[in-house]
């Protein structure tokens, strides 16, 4: 079934009639989308569920991939109406499921139990979390810096063999501790529809809507969970230039939503880049995901990604948030968002 933006209002107040909805915002996502949808069709989920794709103007094969699978609901909006938080809130209004699972268009569920595992901690009779983040496993081809960062981020949240509950306790935590507790990624996440619609929605921000949501959940005293068994295979396929812009954009966005981002000077950026590049050398040499040829290539190129990362953090952490022109020039989101009606 296909609907458009003009029909959204009619669907907005519809009551939940299913157990879960998987929501996937798309824009030119044909590289992995067929694989994502096909594994979603095979989920071992005890309840009823649907898959809702919200497309914001794809011109590649994305729409054909969705329409070839008539069991997928397709809702189309103009590109100008897309917003990372706004569109996910729209998905909640359109959803028929009382539980919502969010995926990015290139996040491939790891197995047939993904939906059950990512939504399980939402059970009021169990963990009773209001928001769940799942594990991300980098693609074997991911560049080393990002691969090891992803592994490190999720290892720091909790062990891989059980659900970890995250909550703040009675006292409001200090800023650094709050940022740690608030980590959230809607590349692979779940929440309750009623909670998102009536209690804490996503903020309508340019980027890092997931960090903002996680922070709002923790500050309000609600419980968040990490469910490593609900894992996806995902890492961004970025060129060096795209990665530089993405880090810049993420740093600016985290500052805008109130996350603690200490300024990094040029010397500090250079030292951190050098240390990071050297630290990765033994990891690359031991990494079984890379062939001998790939290892040699990454030993030469990975330091460039570290340099791009830290010089972007330097720029984004010291730039005035009122300098909209420079921020737009450094933004990958602004560059990728075409003028599509």
UniProtKB/TrEMBL annotation:
It comes from Lacisediminihabitans changchengi. The keyword Glycosyltransferase applies. This is Glycosyltransferase. Pathway: Cell wall biogenesis; cell wall polysaccharide biosynthesis. Belongs to the glycosyltransferase 2 family. It comes from the Bacteria. CDD domains: Glyco_tranf_GTA_type. Keywords: Glycosyltransferase, Transferase. Pfam families: Glycos_transf_2. The lineage of its organism: Bacteria, Bacillati, Actinomycetota, Actinomycetes, Micrococcales.
């Amino acid at each position: 079934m296909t609907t458009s933006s003009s029909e959204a209002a009619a669907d907005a107040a519809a009551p939940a009639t299913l157990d879960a909805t998987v929501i996937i915002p798309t824009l030119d996502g044909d590289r992995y989308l067929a694989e994502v949808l096909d594994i979603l069709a095979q989920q071992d989920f005890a309840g009823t569920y649907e898959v809702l794709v919200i497309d914001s103007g794809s011109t590649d094969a994305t729409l054909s991939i969705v329409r070839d699978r008539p069991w997928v609901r397709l809702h189309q909006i103009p590109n100008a109406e897309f917003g990372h938080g706004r569109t996910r809130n729209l998905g909640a209004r359109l959803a028929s499921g009382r539980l919502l699972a969010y995926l990015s268009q290139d996040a491939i569920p790891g197995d047939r139990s993904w939906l059950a595992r990512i939504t399980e901690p939402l059970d009021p009779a169990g963990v009773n979390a209001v928001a769940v983040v799942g594990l991300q496993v980098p693609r074997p081809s991911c560049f080393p810096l990002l691969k090891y960062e992803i592994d490190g981020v999720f290892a720091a949240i909790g062990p891989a063999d059980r659900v970890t509950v995250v909550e703040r306790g009675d006292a409001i935590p200090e800023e650094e501790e709050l940022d740690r507790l608030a980590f959230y990624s809607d590349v692979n996440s779940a929440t309750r529809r009623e909670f998102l619609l009536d209690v804490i929605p996503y903020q309508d921000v340019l980027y890092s809507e997931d960090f903002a949501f996680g922070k709002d959940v923790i500050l309000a005293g609600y419980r968040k969970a990490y469910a490593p068994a609900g894992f996806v295979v995902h890492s961004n396929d970025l060129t060096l230039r795209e990665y530089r812009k993405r880090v810049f954009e993420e740093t600016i966005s985290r500052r805008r939503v109130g996350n603690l981002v200490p300024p990094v000077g040029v010397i500090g950026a250079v030292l951190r880049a050098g240390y990071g590049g050297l630290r990765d050398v033994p990891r690359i040499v031991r990494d079984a995901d890379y062939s001998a040829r790939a290892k040699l290539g990454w030993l030469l190129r990975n330091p460039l990604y570290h340099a791009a990362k830290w010089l972007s953090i330097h720029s984004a952490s010291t730039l005035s948030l009122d300098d909209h022109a420079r921020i737009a020039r450094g933004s990958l989101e602004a560059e990728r968002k075409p003028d599509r009606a």
